[in-house]
Amino acid sequence: MRKLVIAHSPDSDDAYMMAPLALEWLQDDDDFQHFSFEFVRSDIETLNQLATVPTYDVTAISFAAYPEIEDKYDLLRAGSSIQDGSGPIVISQRKIRAEELFDMTVAIPGKRTSAFLTMCRWMPGLNTVVVPFDKIMNGVATGLFDAGLLIHESQLMYESIGLHKVVDLGEWWKTIHDLPLPMGGNAIRKDIPQKEKIMFARLMRKSVNTAINRHQESIDYAQSFGRGMDREMVERYVRGWVNDFTIDIGDRGMQAVSVLLGKEGRWVEP
Fold it and tell me: Average pLDDT, stretch 157-186?
């Protein structure tokens, strides 16, 4: 039995797709029985940084971080966070034109995030400051920052506190490339034997499918990590980010990653 340390963010979609592994719903599965698991949770930019070492056997990463770690990790086809036509949102305290951002400082959740990479493609040369992702929305609301780049659940919450959308980067990306915007996925260490990487790749896909089939129980698990959202909002977020691309990224999803990065990734085929 191989022990795998799995790191993921406490975001609702990450927790949701890992519920079947963490709660041992797949304990009768042959692939599951080959492994034991330890779970670690941290924000995505921290996981991006730790992946450069590398630190964990399996880790959630921003796709934007992949070129820096491709010598250490391969990508898994299951477990991706990708939306078709929506994505991270640049917000401001008042209604502004996009070009006004050049006179502002934009709070971003990290320079290794796919959201930041996409924003740079949309409007290069903006002044930025790195801020923990869960501090950006309120920082803009209180005037601490001129504008902010929102990821995760805050994308659903900013309007309720009177903030304004400057651009939905996923919508912009769809207009430019006619592709979904890939944000993050799961990566597995290269030095794990190929047979075991393939076994876990199959298991990860089963975990996503089982989470969807046991939706309400998976929502219960996702909500247990808090993040200030009621159940209805957790469910809205999960339904947006857990989709066909999460079960298997597919050719279109892999094309989107290649366009975002300007290079192809190495994927473990289940």
Answer: 95
